[in-house]
Write a structure and sequence with these properties.
Helix content is 76%, strand content 0%. It contains 15 helices and no strands.
């Protein structure tokens, strides 16, 4: 009952913020004008506000679910697309698409970005699996350092070939340029989230380790590759459409897991809803703080997300939180054995 209550509250918040998002902006649009059939205001809603809302929802849902999958598969609560080289690799893929296929469509750039994101994520995962003693903070630090190296290569190539200005649009997350006809690729997030929900139990088992997975008859490498590929494709579609949005895949799954546990199937819906609510709230704040000007979404999310991240860092490293995590892991293993 408590679990369904939190889901219901998040759903109501998402609906209310979605309605508010349609009527907040530089141009004042009233719901009464739309209902009366004012074609000018109706065009604004259909061409700009509604596509922006859908892009926001797909971004929040997709990046939060991608972070949840990566945290489970890597067995670390501080791993996410932003700390696991996925976003930086996706940006490198976009640059390669601009260099080798300058006239490519959004689909072509997504393909380049996806291949690069999968490759970068796999290199990161393979590297941390070689580390014998993996501290909870050391793993994301390794990812951040590897991401910095990839960003350095990306910036070097962009500077060498005069692509810095073209690349900058994918380095800063921004919803202000989202209009009808330029955002539909982000809908790739929706089937990927459904697939993640279907295979949630497999991701949960793989997160317990290779030996544990094999004992239950799960192909560890296949499920690991599938999970990381889902996270990489979600990240690629979001980065190509919106740009880089930090912290979403890191803080949203952590906050939800504090209240609902670590089992993916039990937290995925709430994680998706909370991700949408969080990005919507940040976008509305960015639109009203400095009207008529607008703050980029990565700036608002970066400020709020960094504060939340510091709080999560202190919480996760506390002795009481470590004890709770160990107990949850033990119970999760028992439940996974029963379900298998």
């Amino acid at each position: 009952m408590k679990a369904s209550k939190s889901t219901f509250v998040l759903l109501i918040l998402l609906i209310l913020l979605s309605i508010m998002s349609l009527f907040v902006g530089v141009i004042d649009v009233s719901i009464f004008d739309v209902l009366k059939g004012d074609f000018q205001h109706l065009d604004i809603v259909l061409i700009s506000r509604l596509p922006r809302l859908l892009a926001i929802l797909c971004t929040g849902v997709g990046m939060s679910v991608a972070g949840l999958i990566m945290q489970q598969l890597c067995m670390n609560k501080f791993v996410a697309p932003s700390t696991g080289t996925t976003i930086s690799s996706a940006q490198l893929g976009i640059l390669l698409a601009l260099l080798f296929m300058p006239n490519s469509t959004l689909v072509g750039r997504v393909i380049f970005s996806f291949v690069a994101a999968v490759a970068g994520t796999w290199i990161f995962v393979a590297f941390i699996q070689k580390i014998k003693f993996k501290d909870v903070v050391m793993v994301p630090l390794v990812g951040i350092m590897m991401g910095s190296v990839i960003n350095g290569v990306t910036n070097y190539l962009a500077y060498k070939y005069g692509m810095l200005q073209a690349l900058s649009s994918w380095l800063v997350g921004d919803f202000s340029l989202i209009i009808r006809g330029r955002y539909e690729i982000v809908f790739l997030v929706l089937p990927l989230v459904v697939i993640a929900f279907i295979f949630a139990n497999h991701f949960n088992i793989v997160g317990m380790g290779e030996d544990f997975s094999k004992n239950l008859g799960i192909n560890y490498n296949v499920v690991l590759f599938m999970g990381l590929s889902i996270a990489a494709l979600i990240t690629a579609s979001v980065v190509v459409t919106v740009g880089s949005v930090p912290y979403l895949g890191l803080i949203i799954p952590n906050i939800v897991s504090i209240f609902k546990g670590d089992k993916i199937r039990g937290t995925l819906i709430d994680t998706a809803l909370f991700g949408g609510v969080f990005v919507l709230a940040c976008d509305i704040i960015g639109r009203i703080v400095n009207r008529p000007y607008e703050l980029p979404i990565n700036l608002v999310v970066g400020v709020i997300g960094s504060i939340l991240f510091l709080g999560l860092l202190f919480y996760r490293l506390s002795p009481s939180a470590r004890a709770k995590l160990s107990e949850r892991t033990r119970k999760s293993k028992q439940n996974s054995i029963k379900e298998a």
